[in-house]
Specification:
With 351 residues, the protein is mainly alpha-helical. The protein has 15 helices and 6 strands. The protein has helices at residues 35-54, 63-72, 80-94, 104-111, 119-140, 164-173, 176-188, 192-196, 229-241, 261-270, 280-291, 296-303, 308-314, 319-326, 338-350; strands at 2-4, 11-19, 22-32, 203-204, 209-212, 223-226. The strands form 2 sheets. The protein has a 3-stranded antiparallel β-sheet. α3 crosses α5 and α12 (296-303) packs across α13.
Length: 351
């Protein structure tokens, strides 16, 4: 059958074919906006797949052919351009082979040619190829098995904790029009893309929150971001000064779409904060919340995370904070009373 997804303009096809003990399940985009053309695509695909499962002789399919179908089926994915870029690299380096000839040795010997890359970058290229080959195996049935592709464990990146002096230096070194962006990031923990695309129409000053559509949020869910008093105050002041439909604009009143890497490196270097990423501001926001007493469940909702595990990856309480928390065991609510401990200790020593 063919059907449409709410967020897509294309028709999708979903069906299953069986022959003896062989079975193929398909659920991909037809890349067609016309229902008639989508039905024609589905009919052709069914015919091709039926020929495959009834004919024991496998047909050769080149890498580029499979990539084209794979990317068409992933059009609703926000990272489809990144997928295309990585798979283009694999296609060139592998010399567009028959997908059935891709094995572990070929993959490892090929990725070894990509020199001077981090483990993280290497993992991203391997993970994309693995996802693509899984598609060829599970959805297209063009390969019998997926070669073993192991992802290396990445060293955990050190957290860049900003104290108040660091924040002041960062703001002083940033262009004036970016200072409100940085302050807003520290006050809300919102992701980079959602900050720079923020419009006044998304902000409800009465309810003191921001509405982010599912298509614009990483979780693919509709998200409501509550705002602190400081964030609301800052936004109110900006609204009085600006006429653009976007919240964050430059000196020419044009929307600030992003911060270029060269500019960010220059800002952080001048502030003596080499290595600081913009995303670290989100980590700092989460950490400040934890140290201020915000519970994990509330922080999970505030940050738009789906699991508590993600919250723990972003919150990094300082040693000073943990040292203070360690003293809670001495408090009046603790079941360990000092007088009792001393009494027991004396009894043991006397014995």
């Amino acid at each position: 059958m063919i059907y449409k997804k709410k967020e897509s303009k294309y028709w999708y096809t979903k069906f299953e074919l069986s022959y003896g003990d062989k079975r193929k399940r398909i659920n991909i985009s037809t890349r067609q906006t016309s229902k008639a053309k989508a039905e024609a695509f589905e009919a052709g695909l069914k015919q091709e797949l039926w020929r495959q499962i009834t004919d024991p002789t496998p047909e050769a399919h080149c890498f580029s052919e499979a990539v084209e179908i794979y990317l068409e089926s992933r059009q609703s994915n926000r990272t489809v351009k990144e997928k295309a870029s990585k798979l283009e690299w694999w296609k060139v380096k592998l010399a567009d082979p028959n997908v059935q000839k891709i094995d572990t040795h070929l993959v490892l010997s090929t990725i070894a040619k990509k020199q001077e890359i981090s483990i993280a970058t290497r993992n991203r290229y391997l993970a994309e190829l693995k996802a693509f080959l899984n598609f060829c195996h599970q959805e297209l049935g063009w390969i019998d098995r997926v070669p073993v592709i192991k992802i290396q464990k990445e060293p955990r990146r050190a957290f860049f904790k900003l104290d108040n002096a660091d924040v002041i230096k960062l703001l002083e070194c940033a262009p004036y029009y970016l200072r409100s962006v940085l302050i807003f990031a520290l006050l809300t923990g919102m992701r980079r893309s959602n900050i720079f695309s923020l419009r006044w129409s998304q902000i409800d000053f009465c309810k003191q929150c921001i509405y982010i559509d599912a298509k614009d949020h990483k979780s693919k869910d509709h998200v409501i971001v509550p705002l602190s008093h400081k964030a609301i105050t800052m936004l109110s002041q900006l609204k009085e000064q600006r006429s653009s439909t976007y919240v964050f604009v430059n000196t020419n009143n044009n929307p600030v779409k992003d911060i270029k890497d060269a500019l960010w490196k220059r800002i952080t270097k001048q502030a003596q904060l080499d290595g600081l990423r913009f995303h670290d501001l989100r980590h700092n926001w989460a950490t400040r919340h934890i140290e201020a007493g915000t519970d994990l469940l509330a922080l999970k909702e505030l940050g738009g995370w789906k699991t508590l595990e993600m919250v723990q990856r972003y919150a990094h309480p300082s040693q000073e904070y943990l040292a203070e928390q360690a003293k809670n065991i001495d408090g009046p609510k603790s079941s360990l009373q000092e007088s009792k401990l001393i009494e027991v200790s004396r009894d043991k020593n006397n014995s």
